[in-house]
Amino acid sequence: MRVGFFRYIIAAVLIICGVILVLENIGITELSTKNIWGYIFPSLIVLIGLKWMIDRMRHKGGSWIWGSFFFIFGSLLLLDKFDVIEFAIKDVFKLWPLLIVYFGFLFIGKSSKPKVTIYNGGSKVEKDDNYSFFSVGNHEFNQPNWKVEPTTVKTLAGDFYYDFSKAYIPEKEIPITISSLAGDVHILVPENLEFQVYASVKAGDIDIVGQSVDGINRSLSYVTPNYDSATRKINLTLKLKAGSIRVDYV
User: Fold this and answer.
1) Which residues contact 180 (CB under 8 A, 6 or more apart)?
2) At what angle do helices 37-57 and 3-25 cross, to 10 degrees?
3) Taking a C-beta distance cutoff of 8 angstroms, is the pair 241, 182 a contact?
4) If 122 and its partner were Cys, which of 145, 186, 189, 192 is the partner (CB 3.0–4.6 Å)?
5) What confidence tens digit (pLDDT) does each residue in 203-213 have?
């Protein structure tokens, strides 16, 4: 782990200690120096789990399985400390059904994973017009001369990066739909490409060539002036529950 992460952990420990001491002073909790570690330890487990999940979403290592497990385990320990439920470290074995959940998601993701081949020296992802899958991961389309095809992608979480300035785009209208519970979508389009986009987020922000909105239940539409008469054009539908959508000219 990097030095920056250890600094983050130290800062987190200090913040947690301060919050716990404030709660003790106002009578919400009764603590002593002896049992304060019982709050710090599960809080650190939660933070480590969050870091691993965020790293996985950013394609910088990490693990959805271990990250989510640590997050759930630490959260249950904290709930026990605040007398919401009864859960001790020895009860970790009660979480074994999570293995079934993880295997289920892995099975869905693997069975629906797109086939990757080579197209004129670049990467080509072959999909049917109604292709979709339900998984976790990042999707990057920025190889030279990658071919744009009708696409429908559904994910639990992930980042999407499309660079249409490097793409081979056939002379037709090409629909592309992206739907995700959480993630970021960043799309680059050349100025000579006609496109229309409908973007929506339940919580987050949208920026389409300078037009932006942010907050809760936001949506934004945009269409280039010559879209209707163009023979080569992209029709984008982008939907996120939480995250950020950005479309820029390049």
Assistant:
1) 153, 154, 155, 156, 157, 158, 160, 239, 240, 241, 243
2) 140
3) yes
4) 145
5) 888 999 999 99
